[in-house]
Amino acid sequence: MAVTLTFTNNGSVATVTGYTTLNDGAVVIPATDGLGHNVTSIGEDAFKNKTLITSLNMSGDTYLTTIGTYAFNGCSGLTGSLTIPASVTSIGDSAFYDCGIEALNVDLDNTIYSSEDGVLFNYDKTMLMICPSGKTQLDYTMPSSVTTLSSNAFHKCENLTGTMNIGSSVIDLGGVNPFAFCGVSAFNVDAGNPNYSNLDGILTDTLLTLIVAYPMNKSKLTIPNSITSIGNYAFHGCYKFTETMIIPDSIGSIGDYAFKDCTGLASIWFKGNAPSIGISISDGTPINAGFALTGVTGYELSPFPVTIITLTENNSRDVEEGVSYGIDNRLKGTFGYGLEGSTILGMI
Prior knowledge:
- This protein is 0% helix and 29% strand.
- By secondary structure, the chain is mostly beta strands.
- The protein has two domains: 1-135, Leucine-rich repeat, LRR (right-handed beta-alpha superhelix); 220-348, Alpha-Beta Horseshoe (Leucine-rich repeat, LRR (right-handed beta-alpha superhelix)), CATH 3.80.10.
- It has a six-stranded mixed β-sheet, with no helix packed on it.
- 40% of the residues are buried.
């Protein structure tokens, strides 16, 4: 027996707002609400985080035009394939974010959206909108028509574990890292791309100086010495790295939330001068960090008790042997370094 739905109505039309009885977890969107109102939309947050929902069928509703923002966000129990009806003209942001769906297909008569290999696009496939989180595949190659990715295009696609191939036509990644929590081990960018490139499997700008996105399943956590900047959200969701990250002395700037949700990192060590930083490096992710006490500028020790340690080759082969570093273990949960003028070490 399908889920018992709830509705609101306005004039002759109705909106699905959620459910009252779970039953077998199957959601079937009807053409009418049972009171003579045509069901034209699934409301914002209607099934958000309803993890016990197991299936979704919208094919019987020929009036459905709108799937609201976050409508099925977090429905991890919603698996298999899903077909977007021909009547749908609007899909809200993150409507299927963090679901278990393996394929998003679109009815061939839909004039707004399209699909290919279970991935959702706009009609002419110039924008890649959603790669479903449940999609399981080694490598993925974007269609040659794609120029733009939505901001959450590959969010939590942890089952894509191989190489992400980006064509020459892709010029816009949606303003933030669309590969957060994506399981790829490497990025490969067509040599003709005017905006992006790759270096040692890392997604960079064409000058190979800015990290745009770091692959979560890269075999070793290293930052090439040619890199001078770490972009906004560049390491977002790289929670699988559990070792120490070494920030080379070539780094002059770190963007907003660059290490957001990097919950596995043991620590971060800065080898050079203090870089400029964005709004927040980690957005509250608990990370310990340290910096050299001599030969660098821009740092300020905390007024709290600071543990002075000397790293040797046995501590980290990437940190110079015999150099003393400052770290404040009482500030676990924030970064253990501050820029020049900071009053409290690590409160960024």
